[in-house]
Each structure stands twice: as structure tokens, then as C-alpha cells.
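In response to the reviewer comment on reproducibility (Comment 2.3), we provide here a single inverse folding case reported in full, input and output, so that an independent group could reproduce the run without further information from us. The C-alpha cells appear first.
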């Protein structure tokens, strides 16, 4: 799925935009016990309450593709014979109305998901979208030739607020109480995927609020497939591959050049407003390295290591490989943070047999917020 397709579905999750008739789910306590079962008509709810539920589900379609939103891909064998995919299809086909199928899914999640001792609300809803046909830049619902049937699932932590003194009208007294509040989803998913504005049962879209905490146990139980490598792990592996392939040649100039060129790609992609995620191959990064003056042998070593660590032919999102908002240089004794735009000002040299870092400064210099003078006599 791309950004436009995700946004097209996100816009539906308002009380007057979707075809959601009921909300389903269960409240699970810290002992992995179902405390309450949810099966309520959305139309019978107060509008404010309905909007709260829909906003929780809509969160599952938020975040950054490749970081918070990950494609889950099923094999042909899973689609034809897999028990996990069969259960998801039963949920979709029944529009979540089959209680026995829902309970089977609840137990699969409860038995696998590790939320520590936290309670959570497992929330689900099914929608049928009469997909409007696109004519130039105009969406025409009257020309629709497909109904996209899908459901969203969200796992929302239930947090206990601080104990406060409150008024209880039934007793006409004040008592101490602590309310339990449903927080934004920690994880969730959409099934099936909405690819090319059409149903794709070979894919699901998985959501994780924290890009570096994907809850692999949930993914394995519900989808029984390996998720893409988390963004934080991609960066760590990428930096390790660079260091291993380049050895002593891996210097400040090279890492700075890689950051500059990948940042330029990211900026250019943003300007085009292309809804498809930006990707870069190991071969392309190898070409960047060659332009920095490394040998062909080192570039090939880098490409081979990328194939081993990421998978042969894998393409990566540059935004997962670098931090475009920060440039930081560390030694054993100090660290310097600088706007990446000005990282070119930093230089490393050897003076009188000693490795030094040169940082040019302007007239205004501060130490811990205090303005200090630059002593020209010590130049």
C-alpha cells in the first residue's frame, strides 16, 4: 500500500463516512483473562463515544510507511492452506459477525501477545467500501465497480489513572477512585491490504506505535510470517556493513557523503509528492561509495554483505538508514551535535602527529549558554 491508499481509507473512519455497523472486541486483564466482551451497535452509541472508538481504530492507519506501517506478505501456500490466513479470511467474510470465529481469534491473540502485566482492549470493526472509480483527478462513486471489504484490529493499552477524590451522585458523597482509560493503540493491522485500490488477500498492513518494538510474538501467531526488519535495526545493520566492508577507509568524509546524498534523495522524493515509498538498492549505495573514492573491491564487498544481512535483492528506505535531523560526532571524551546541513564544516586532521577535529566558529560562541570571546592571540 502507498500513502494515498492509506489516506483514502483513513478518511472513512468518521461516523458519517463508513459502513461500520458494529464494534467488537474484548477487555483483557493483566492475567490474560477476558473481563468483558464488546459487541455493540455503532449507530446506537452517543456520537462522542462512537468517534472515540473510530479514532482508536483510525490510529492503526497512521505513522510512517516502512517504520510504523509494515507490509505483511503471505506466501501462496499460506493463502491456500495456512490456518492463520484461513482465520483472517473467515473474519473478513463474516464481517466479524461470527462470534465463534471472533472468540478463536481473541484466544490466539491473548495466548501469544506479551503486554507484560498491562490490561488492554482488543478492538475490531469491519467496513465495506464502495471504491469510487478514478477519472483523471476526480473520484466518482457512481462509477464504482468494486466493494472493498476489510477489517481493522487495534490493541489498545488500558491505563489506570492516578487516584483522585471524586463525587459519587448515587451516594451523595466523595470517594477516592482511579479511572481506567483506553490509550492509543500499541499495535494493530488492516486485512486485506488495499493495493492499487483493490483487495489484496496476499498482504496485510501491520501497525506498531513504536517502530523498534514490533511484537514479533503477535506477528508470528496472527500471520505466521517474518516481518520486515525494524527501522532501528536496519540502520544498525547498515552501519555495521559499512564499517566491515570499508575497514580503515571508513572515515568522516565517506559517512558524510553518504548522509548528504541519501538526504538529497529523500528531499527530492518529498518534493515530487510521490505516494510510493522511496527505496534505494545496495548497488546504488555502492555507486555512492565509488564516487567517494573507495575501490571497486570494497564496493562489491559492501554489496555482498548487504545481500547477506538484508537479503538478496532487498531494497531499503533511505530514511531508515540515516538520521536526517541530526549529525553527531563522538570521541571517548566529548560529543558534538550539529545541524546536518552544516556537517561539511567539520574536519579531521593530523597535526604534529596528533589526530584533531577542526570546528570553525563564528564571532558568537557560547559555553553552557554563556557568551564567550574567541581569543585571536592563540591562533
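Designed residues, in position order:
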Amino acid at each position: 500500500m502507498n500513502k494515498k491508499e492509506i489516506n483514502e481509507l483513513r478518511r472513512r473512519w468518521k461516523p458519517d463516512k463508513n459502513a461500520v455497523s458494529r464494534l467488537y472486541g474484548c477487555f483483557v486483564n493483566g492475567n490474560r483473562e477476558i473481563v468483558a466482551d464488546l459487541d455493540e451497535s455503532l449507530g446506537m452509541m452517543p456520537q462522542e463515544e462512537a468517534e472515540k472508538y473510530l479514532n482508536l481504530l483510525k490510529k492503526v492507519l497512521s505513522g510512517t510507511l516502512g517504520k510504523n506501517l509494515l507490509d505483511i506478505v503471505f506466501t501462496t501456500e499460506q493463502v491456500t492452506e495456512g490456518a492463520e490466513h484461513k482465520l483472517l479470511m473467515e473474519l473478513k467474510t463474516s464481517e466479524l459477525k461470527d462470534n465463534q470465529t471472533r472468540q478463536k481469534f481473541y484466544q490466539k491473540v491473548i495466548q501469544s501477545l506479551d503486554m507484560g502485566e498491562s490490561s488492554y482492549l482488543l478492538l475490531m470493526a469491519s467496513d465495506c467500501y464502495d471504491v469510487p472509480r478514478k477519472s483523471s483527478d476526480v473520484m466518482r462513486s457512481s462509477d464504482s465497480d468494486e466493494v472493498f471489504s476489510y477489517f481493522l484490529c487495534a490493541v489498545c493499552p488500558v491505563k489506570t489513572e492516578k487516584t483522585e477524590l471524586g463525587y459519587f451522585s448515587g451516594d451523595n458523597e466523595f470517594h477516592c477512585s482511579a479511572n481506567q482509560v483506553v490509550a492509543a493503540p500499541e499495535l494493530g493491522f488492516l486485512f486485506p491490504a488495499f493495493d492499487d485500490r483493490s483487495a489484496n488477500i496476499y498482504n496485510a498492513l501491520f501497525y506498531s506505535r513504536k517502530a523498534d518494538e514490533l511484537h514479533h510474538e503477535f506477528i508470528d501467531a496472527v500471520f505466521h510470517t517474518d516481518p520486515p526488519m525494524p527501522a532501528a535495526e536496519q540502520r544498525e545493520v547498515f552501519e555495521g556493513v559499512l564499517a566491515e566492508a570499508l575497514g580503515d577507509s571508513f572515515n568522516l568524509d565517506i559517512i558524510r557523503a553518504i548522509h548528504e546524498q541519501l538526504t538529497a534523495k529523500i528531499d527530492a522524493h518529498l518534493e515530487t509528492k510521490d505516494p510510493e515509498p522511496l527505496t534505494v538498492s545496495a548497488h546504488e549505495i555502492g555507486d555512492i561509495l565509488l564516487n567517494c573514492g573507495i575501490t571497486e573491491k570494497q564496493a562489491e564487498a559492501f554489496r555482498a554483505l548487504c545481500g547477506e544481512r538484508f537479503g538478496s535483492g532487498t531494497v531499503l528506505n533511505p530514511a531508515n538508514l540515516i538520521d536526517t535531523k541530526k549529525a553527531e560526532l563522538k570521541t571517548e571524551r566529548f560529543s558534538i551535535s550539529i545541524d546536518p546541513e552544516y556537517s561539511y564544516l567539520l574536519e579531521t586532521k593530523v597535526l604534529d602527529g596528533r589526530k584533531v577535529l577542526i570546528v570553525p566558529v563564528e564571532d558568537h560562541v557560547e559555553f553552557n549558554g554563556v557568551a564567550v570571546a574567541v581569543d585571536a592571540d592563540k591562533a
